[in-house]
Amino acid sequence: MTAINWHERAAALAADGRAFIDGWRVDARSGQRFDSTSPVDGRKLAEVARCDAQDVDLAVAAARRAFEDRRWAGKAPAERKRVLIRFAELMLAHREELALLETLDMGKPIRYSLSVDVQLAQNCIRWYGEATDKIYDQVAPSPEDSLALITREPVGVVAAIIPWNYPMLMAAWKIGPALAAGNSLVLKPSEKAPLSSLRLAELALEAGVPPGVFNVLPGYGDEAGKALALHMDVDCIAFTGSTRVGKQILQMAGQSNLKRAWTELGGKSANIVCADCPDLDAAVASAVGSIYFNQGESCNAPSRLFVEESIREAFLEKALRLVPRHAPGDPLDEQTVMGAIVDQIQMKTVLGYIEDGKAAGARLLAGGGAARQDSGGLYIEPTLFDGVDASMRIAREEIFGPVLSVLSFTDLDEAVRQANSTPYGLAAAVWTRDMSKAIRTARALRAGTVHVNQYDNDDITVPFGGYKQSGNGRDKSLHAFDKYTELKTTWIQV
Ligand code: NAD
Fold this sequence. Notes:
Largest sheet: 7 strands, mixed
Bound molecules: nicotinamide-adenine-dinucleotide
Strand order of the largest sheet: 14-17-18-13-12-19-20
Strand content: 15-25%
Oligomer: single chain
Number of helices: 16
Mean pLDDT: 98
């Protein structure tokens, strides 16, 4: 097999930034556009339609027409299944193109765009496609003179607003269950990484998803996003992004038509390593690998590491040997494991947190600065702070960058208390060979996902979402259908 020359492919790429409404590529009604610039090297990728309330009206009307005439919802589940599986197959057939769009748009290494993002996204669409004709409704235990049916129906027009850190995968987590359940969808990708979502809409149409059923509106949050959240004819809004904006989404849902509102928000996940951890090398590799994966731009990144004091030195020594392996490189080189930071704003935020950690008295043991500055792109060294106190901002706030804060503990109950003393509750982990201790700790940790003796296992079969201000509802698994369906009771007199 010949190696792919990703630089040549990138140079030849002609990305289309126009919106996708009712089966057509269109400019924003206002004619306004904004530039999509790559954090890899600063190159301009495309001019993107700057959609606003006018375009939202058009896309929602198209989605509503498609829903009302039942061109998708009325299809037999086996037919929706066939189309969604074909969509997943087309994603695989176009995997190199999709991976390149993702890497150039938001900076992640091409090896992961291919092996993680495209792979998981197509699997998600396929999995929900396959589920379509395998879910049964219920008959209630009603008296003999009646028959009570409990059925699930699509909610109608779903709006999805997603972030930039896993653009294609976050899109797939919404598209899969929303379309499998028979809804119409208007997707607003992040203004920082809209290109893969737009391409997905074309592939869905090619696979047989009827026009109007899946629309994509690129644009800014306070324009297209806000218009969707306030729209009176959107039945459900599924939001993934920051806790700050998630709160606004819930307010806008209440302020408009009480659309069902689901939020998947930020995190500050705790990773607790006890002295009796079964495999210290595995714990170190996982702690380091998971925080620097995706440049630290993961909602569930284990950014707070609690290490039992008696193994702290040994842990840090091993960790510091691994950190340089995560140094950022050219995202278009298949050997690179850490890529570029999405944009200048995020770069400034992350570097600001690093300065804040230093000023607060945390010990900077690795990294701490910008890297690859001659590349024209945006890169930050993998950074590790020891001696972090729970009161410091780097221990409390979501940094969303390659920064690990190490705190130590002598009493596990106190570590759990500190782990829980955050507004977030997305993920957590505990490492110990004592299974009773592991189960007690897992039960005590207030998070949507708790890992025991690993951090990386994940699968479409399990729900993903947060406690507390990490959001409500769950993406992935059959539980995601709860977001995109209404439960109907039908009483029949016999
Ligand atoms: P963000 O909240 O700034 O933006 C998310 C989306 O909301 C974007 O499409 C943006 O344009 C839109 N938006 C912004 N303001 C809006 C408004 N006023 N009205 C409507 N829409 C608006 O978040 P981000 O920086 O894109 O993403 C990073 C955040 O996402 C982090 O906090 C991360 O933890 C979180 N995240 C959570 C999950 C999860 O499943 N829990 C997954 C990925 C990312």
